[in-house]
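User: Could you write out the 3D structure of this protein bound to NAP? I've included everything you need below.
Assistant: Certainly. Input first, then the structure.
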Amino acid sequence: MELHRAVALVTGGGRGIGEAIARRLSAAGLHVVVSGRDVAALDAVASDIAGVAIPADLSDRSAAEVLVRTVEREVGPIAVLVNNAGLAESAPLARTDDAIWDRTMALNVTAAFSLCRALMPEMARRGPGRVVNIASNAGLRGYAYTSAYCASKHALVGLTRALAVEFARTGVTVNAVCPGFVDTAMSERAAGNIARATGRDGREALAALSPQKRMMTPEEVAHVVWSFLPHEARGITGQCIALDGGQSA
Ligand code: NAP
């Protein structure tokens, strides 16, 4: 597909992995819309990349449809959707209350599903398109104390595969990136939890999970996202690419 000035919507684009994706896609010539709740962060990224900031709280069920319509009306037809916004909370099963389960599912799965449903039928009518879901290594295997997060990311992997097959004849591809720990605020919180619970250096403990003995960088995730976009990648669909230094191998 033609990437130059194609409109890309990146959820959670104001910081962390989403910010790196927004910057990478902008550098590749796309016109990027960043969305999230933190207006100041979104505005800072958007002004840096000559993009557009459109705030939305995607834990609200009706927000996805509104966001898609707003982007298409104010910016143009969306050719690339990156479902990146997500949250991770850790707790043993007995302390994983309904509120944790509900907010994890609402953002990590339902928001992605709702954005796809609001956009993909029209995207498919228009021609080539790309959907990239930022899942996780926790969408490919289980981890203790993260039942809601693991379940949500397995669901996102399932959504990726199902929609890839459903839209296979339309020119729209659907893929996922499944990172191990990436050096962002999210893993900083996980490192803090480990340090408090065990007294160990949390960052070192997270890095040690990967055979490469390091955390991934947001820019590495952004590179994989970009790799799904060109015309030459049109045969890649339904793939959930682990980016984890060999952790899932
Ligand atoms: P992060 O630094 O905590 O950022 C989370 C992003 O999600 C922020 O941009 C945030 O924007 C957005 N977000 C949170 N709640 C939202 C809501 N209700 N509505 C709209 N946007 C919301 O996390 P990250 O590390 O960049 O993670 C990004 C994605 O990668 C997530 O899906 C995560 O599960 C996945 N991932 C991360 C790691 C890791 O180790 N960091 C590993 C594997 C997968 P606002 O605050 O502006 O709303």
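The radius of gyration is 17 Å.
User: Perfect, thank you.
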